[in-house]
Each structure stands twice: as C-alpha cells, then as structure tokens.
C-alpha cells in the first residue's frame, strides 16, 4: 500500500468532501456539487461524518442509491484521513476519522496555524439589516432580539470570511412623526425634555396617538387630520418641521448609541428610512407605470398578477372559500409613502451599492407578510436583479414574562432596554459579591458587567429563535446549566489551570497532540467541529446551534478533566493535555465572541 499523501487541507472533513465531489463529478458530470456535503454524524455509533447527498442524486436519475454509493466508494480514496467508510441505510456514506488526522489538525490549531474555522470556499457579500429601532420611541425588549441576533449573524459570517455590510435601518420617517410634530407643537414640556428626552417624546407621542385611533373612544378627527397634514408637510420638505424632526433624531441617537455601546454592537451604516425619501416617488411611479401597482380607493397598491400558485402568492389571501386580493399599500391617499415603498427603494439601493449575494432582515415574526410581499413585488419590479440575490427574512418570536404573557413592567409598560441591562448588571453584581467578597469593587463591577450582559444575550440566543421564550433572571444567571455565566466560568477555570501550569513547568509546547484516552478523543472530535457549527449557524441563521455546541464542549471538557490528569501527568502527555485545554479555551473564547459575549480571565 502506498503511504498516505499529506493532507491537502487542514480540515479532514473538507478533504473528504473535496474528494467526494471529485468522484461524483466524474460519475455524474451534471450533478450540483454544492449539495455534496460532509457533515457530523448525528449518532456517533455510525461514524464521525456523514454524506447524504448521493441518495437525492441517485433518485433524481432513477438510479439505485446504494448502487451509486458502491460505485462512488470504488473510486474514493480517503484512507489518509479515514479508518473506514461504510454505506448505510438508503445510501448514506459514513466516515470514521483516523485519529492521526484529528491529532494533526488539532496540533496545527494549537500552533495557531488556523483558528479551527475554515474560511468560506466562496466568500459572499451579505447585507444584514438589524436592530432598526424607531426614532422618538424608546428601544424596548422587542428590539433587543433583533440587535443581539443580527450582531451574532454579522460576527459569524465575518469569521467565515464573508464580506458583511451591516446596516441599521432606523425608523426615522414613519407616520409617528405626524403625531410627534403635533405633540411637539402643542404639548411639549421643555424642562421635561431637558431631563429625559426620550421619556418626554414618548409622552407626547402617546398623548396624541391615543386620540388618533379611529373607532376608539376619545378619537379626535380634527387632531388626526392635523397629524396627517404635519407629516405631509414634513415629507414635502417644510423647513420648520424638518428642524424639529432633526432635533428628535439627534435626541434619539444619543440613547441608541448608549445602548449599542453597552452591548458592544457597531454598524457599518445607519441609513434610516428618511435616506430613501427622495427615491420614493420614482419607485411608486415606476410600479404604477408598469402596471405592478394601481389605484384603489385613492391609494396606490401592488396587486397580485396571479403569476404564482395562489398558495405561494403573498398578495393573495384565502377568504370566504376563494382566493382574494391581499394588496400591499405603497402610497396613501394623502400622498404619504408607506413602509413598503421605503423597503422597495432600500432594496434597489442596496443592490446598486453593494451588489450583495444575500440580504438578511432581522425582525419579529409579525413582519413576515410584509417581507414576503416586498420580496414578491421586487421580483416583478427587477427580475434580473432579483435572480442574483437571496432575500432572507430572519424572524423571531416574543419575549414573555414569567406569567407567559409578553414581557411588561409591573405597571404594564413595555420594558425598556436600558433598564433591563441595568437590572442584569445589578443582579450579577450581587452574585459576584456573594461569591468573591474579597475582590476590589471595580473588579467586581467589571465581572458583573460582562456576566450580566452576557447572560441577557445568551438567554436570547439559546432558544430556537422562532419560539417565544420566558424571560427568567434566575435561569439566565445560574452558574449551573446552559447559561452564559456557566460558559464564562468554564473558560475562567481553564485559564486558571493554564496559569498554574506556567508556574510549575516551562517548555510545555507539545511536539504533538496525542489523544490516548476515550475522553481525549471525544473532546478532540468535538473541537474539530467548531467551524462546521459556525457554518450551520450562518447558513440557517441559528445561533442556538453554537450555544448548544459550546455547552456540550464544556461537558466534554469536564469529563476529560475528571478522567485525565493534566498538571500531574508525565511530560509529553502533560504538554499534549495542556494544549488540549488551551484549545478548548480558545474555542470557548471565539465561540462566545461570535455570540457577542465577553470572557473573563478570573471569575
Ligand atoms: N423599524 C422597524 C421596526 O421597529 C424595523 C425595520 C426593519 N427593517 C426593514 N428594512 N424594514 O419594526
């Protein structure tokens, strides 16, 4: 047998995948090779990695999947990285990794040759639209999920080598300004504005809004009309209204910046809705001219062209036993433009400016229909451009209080983000002070800040994003369980082991990593999959994959540390195990960084 050739790729799963693709392309020249993927086996009893694509490829060609798998195996040469390859079930390929290949990759990572994450084979340009709070309204818990989730998607895609453009689509041009302008002109309390600008803006907004709700008691038709008139004046460029509007934006921005600073979130751009205002008339005119939109009751709306199967057409709705129009409003009767018109202009701008391969929008689930309609309309407006970009609405559920209802303060108000973060830090400070009363206060506060903010973020990223979750301080701050403090603690504990090692021995650089025990091999295999988890997180927009991966990593580490002496081991084993410890710490740090969570050297 000829000696195995050196690995062409540092990641054995990539090597296997590349060779598998080569064989498939030789046997089935027209096959879509991107579908041929090597992924971790769900059940380790069957192998370390699995490829399922042959089944689909065979079926599409009326071939027998197991026969195709057998043919592929005849040509596939992976003995340098696999102990065995088996055909299982309907035609799965299961690969069992050679421990040498695993050791080699981990050793490379411990020499800092690579961060255990493979760069994307084809880097993409991805625009991520997230956070996007509304001016003159406080940021509330609903915006927290978009901010935390969106930031995590930015970080994961950047780590994979994609070009990410992050854009905060601030709501600085909506209907709310009509009411805010009326409120500013008739109700404003200057002293209150000095004290707490957002609270005062919220007060005047609520006072006017309460009288503008048609059909509600207290509805004031004249006031409603003047709110609409103020908005139209603003949108037409009235100097006085523009000056007030600028002032409201400035005041809001101060508050947004403070929150982003605390969360460690930054944006490449913050092109708010107002940025697109000069483009809206042209968008509406074009859609009207091309017959995509038409008048309806004086307003301008996009109607279905019945070009899609009704079930897939967001501009239709099934009502009274038949498919009826469910048009999307783009310009109101009074000439005011709508949220949808802005989103269409925004889409066109982003495609012209950045030529992205993907645009991701992160908002709550109530906006699903809005985005489906925007995407469908855009497809008809710019079919050429639409073909080149993947539009993705990443939506999420609500945050619930312990009573199972949407999270509110005791007095029934929306919970404000700043207050929530304050409380997280205060609670964390109490825990830290109980555990470490001897630490200086400044240090305790810094630990509490990282633990408190980390706990809030992790609680938000851990659940499947499409389910509602119950907000629980005790759960998210627990030191035991799948929480940020638990992972931060695991990291700090490893750092302390590594510090002790430095005190007691010199020259611990391993000349090799040797995975001699079951626990070391299990830990090593898990470490190897870090990059694949980041890839799945990015392609499916699911940070919970990474949370669970890191939690499992720390369990593997605990089992390893309980069963394999590290500091007391003999020289080469000691060095190898210390290198393993430091890889676990590095993956925990990088993984938490992708989640936007800071680590601590000591806790
Ligand atoms: N400002 C909106 C809100 O608070 C979210 C905007 C999301 N992005 C977009 N392109 N529509 O609900």
Q: In terms of topology, how is this protein built?
A:
Layout: H1 12-27, E1 39-40, E2 49-51, H2 53-60, H3 65-75, E3 82-88, E4 92-97, H4 99-110, E5 125-129, H5 141-159, E6 163-167, H6 176-187, H7 190-195, H8 197-209, H9 221-235, H10 239-263, H11 277-289, E7 293-296, E8 299-302, E9 316-319, E10 322-325, E11 328-331, H12 339-354, E12 358-364, H13 368-381, H14 383-388, E13 390-396, E14 399-400, H15 417-435, H16 441-461, E15 469-470, H17 473-477, H18 484-504, H19 518-528, H20 530-540, H21 544-563, H22 571-594
Parallel strand pairs: 5-6, 5-12, 12-13, 14-15
Antiparallel strand pairs: 1-2, 2-4, 3-4, 7-8, 8-11, 9-10
The protein binds arginine.
Descriptive report:
By secondary structure, this protein is α/β, with parallel strands linked by helices. The chain folds into 3 domains: 12-97, Arginyl tRNA synthetase N-terminal domain (Gyrase A, domain 2), CATH 3.30.1360.70; 125-171 and 276-396, 3-Layer(aba) Sandwich (Rossmann fold), CATH 3.40.50.620; 417-594, Isoleucyl-tRNA Synthetase, Domain 1. Helices cover 53% and strands 11% of the residues. The protein is built from 22 helices and 15 strands. The strands form 5 sheets. The chain has a 4-stranded antiparallel β-sheet. Strands 6-5-12-13 form a 4-stranded parallel β-sheet, with helices on both faces. Strand 5 (125-129), helix 5 and strand 6 (163-167) form a beta-alpha-beta unit. Helix 20 (530-540) runs antiparallel to helix 21 (544-563). The longest helix is centred in the middle third of the chain and has 25 residues, at 239-263. The model is unreliable at 1-7 (pLDDT under 50). Residues 129, 132-134, 169, 171, 343, 346, 361, 363 line the site of arginine. The site of arginine has 10 residues, from helix 12 and strand 12.
């Amino acid at each position: 047998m000829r000696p195995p050739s050196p690995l062409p790729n540092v990641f054995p799963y990539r090597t296997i995948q590349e060779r598998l693709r080569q064989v498939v392309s030789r046997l089935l020249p027209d096959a879509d090779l991107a579908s041929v993927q090597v992924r971790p086996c769900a059940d380790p009893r069957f192998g370390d990695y699995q490829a399922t694509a042959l089944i689909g490829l065979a079926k599409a060609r009326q071939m027998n999947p197991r026969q195709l798998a057998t043919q592929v195996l005849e040509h596939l040469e992976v003995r340098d990285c696999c102990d065995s390859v088996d055909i299982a079930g309907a035609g799965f390929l299961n690969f069992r990794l050679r421990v040498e290949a695993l050791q080699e990759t981990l050793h490379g990572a411990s020499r800092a040759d690579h961060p255990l994450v493979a760069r994307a084979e084809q880097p993409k340009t991805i625009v991520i639209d997230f956070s996007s709070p509304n001016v003159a309204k406080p940021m509330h818990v609903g915006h927290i999920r978009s901010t935390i989730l969106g930031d995590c998607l930015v970080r994961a895609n950047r780590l994979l080598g994609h070009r990410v453009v992050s854009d905060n689509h601030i709501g600085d041009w909506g209907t709310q300004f009509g009411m805010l302008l009326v409120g500013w002109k008739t109700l404003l309390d200057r002293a209150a504005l000095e004290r707490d600008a957002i609270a005062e803006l919220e007060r005047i907004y609520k006072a006017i809004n309460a009288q503008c709700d048609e059909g509600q008691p207290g509805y004031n038709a004249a006031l409603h009309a003047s709110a609409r008139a103020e908005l139209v004046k603003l949108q037409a460029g009235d100097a006085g209204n523009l000056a007030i509007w600028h002032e409201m934006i400035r005041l809001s921005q101060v508050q947004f910046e403070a929150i982003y600073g605390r969360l460690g979130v930054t944006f490449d751009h913050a092109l708010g809705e107002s940025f697109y205002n000069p483009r809206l008339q042209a968008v509406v005119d074009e859609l009207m001219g091309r017959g995509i939109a038409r008048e309806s009751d004086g307003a301008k709306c996009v109607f279905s062209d019945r070009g899609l199967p009704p079930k897939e057409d967001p501009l239709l709705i099934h009502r009274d036993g038949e498919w009826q129009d469910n048009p999307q409003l783009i310009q109101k009767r009074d000439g005011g433009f709508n949220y949808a018109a802005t989103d269409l202009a925004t889409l066109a701008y982003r495609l012209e400016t950045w030529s992205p391969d993907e645009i991701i929008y992160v908002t709550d689930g109530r906006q699903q229909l809005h985005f489906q309609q925007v995407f469908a309309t855009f497809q008809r407006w710019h079919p050429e451009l639409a073909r080149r970009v993947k539009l993705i609405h990443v939506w999420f559920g609500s945050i619930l209080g312990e009573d199972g209802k949407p999270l509110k303060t005791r007095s029934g108000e929306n919970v404000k983000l700043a207050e929530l973060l304050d409380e997280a830090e205060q609670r964390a400070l109490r825990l830290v002070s109980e555990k470490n009363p001897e630490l200086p206060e400044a240090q305790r506060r810094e630990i509490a800040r990282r633990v408190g903010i980390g706990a809030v973020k992790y609680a938000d990223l851990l659940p499947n994003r499409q389910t509602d979750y119950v907000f629980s301080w005790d759960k998210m701050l627990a030191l035991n369980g799948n929480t940020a403090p638990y992972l931060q603690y695991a990291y700090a504990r490893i750092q302390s082991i590594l510090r002790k090692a430095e005190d007691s021995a010199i020259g611990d650089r391993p000349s090799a990593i040797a995975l001699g025990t079951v626990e070391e091999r299990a830990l090593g295999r898990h470490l190897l999959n870090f990059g694949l988890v980041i890839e799945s997180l990015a392609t499916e927009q699911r940070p919970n994959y990474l949370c669970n991966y890191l939690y499992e990593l720390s369990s593997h580490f605990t089992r390893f540390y309980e069963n394999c002496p590290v500091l007391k081991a003999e020289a080469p084993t000691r060095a190898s195990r210390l290198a393993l410890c430091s890889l676990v710490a590095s993956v925990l740090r990088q993984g938490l960084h992708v989640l936007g969570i800071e680590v601590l050297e000591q806790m």
